[in-house]
Amino acid sequence: MISGTNGLMGAADGAFVLSKEKRTSNNAILDVAGRDQQDMKIHLVRDAEKLIWNFEKSETE
């Protein structure tokens, strides 16, 4: 899982972690956690033609 995960830690005590089940998968989950924001899971779908991630849905904890 570590090799398939990219993380970014910010100075505002927050973290964003993008994870995919497989490297070739077009679906991903962006986990947002931190002291000053609500914890969220954002489901994304990759558009292979435009090479961008599109929002699908979000979940809050």
How far apart lie the N and C ends?
A: 22 Å
In total, how many beta strands? 5
Query: What ranges have pLDDT less than 50 throughout 5 or more consecutive residues?
Result: none
The overall average pLDDT, rounded, is 82
* Tally of helical runs: 0
- Topology pattern, helix = H, strand = E: EEEEE
Please list the strands of the largest sheet in the order they lie side by side. Answer: 1-2-3-4-5
Approximate strand percentage = over 45%
Sheet bearing the most strands, described?
5 strands, antiparallel
Calculate Rg over CA atoms.
12 Å
What is the share of helical residues?
under 10%
Structural class: mainly beta
Give the overall form: elongated
Provide a compact summary of the structure.
With 61 residues, the chain is mainly β. Helices cover 0% and strands 59% of the residues.
Structural write-up:
The structure is a single chain. The protein has 61 residues and is mostly beta strands. Helices cover 0% and strands 59% of the residues. It has no helices and five strands. It has strands spanning 5-9, 14-19, 27-34, 40-47, 52-60. It has a five-stranded antiparallel β-sheet with strand order 1-2-3-4-5, with no helix packed on it. The radius of gyration is 12 Å and the shape is elongated. The two termini are 22 Å apart. The model has no long low-confidence stretch (mean pLDDT 82).
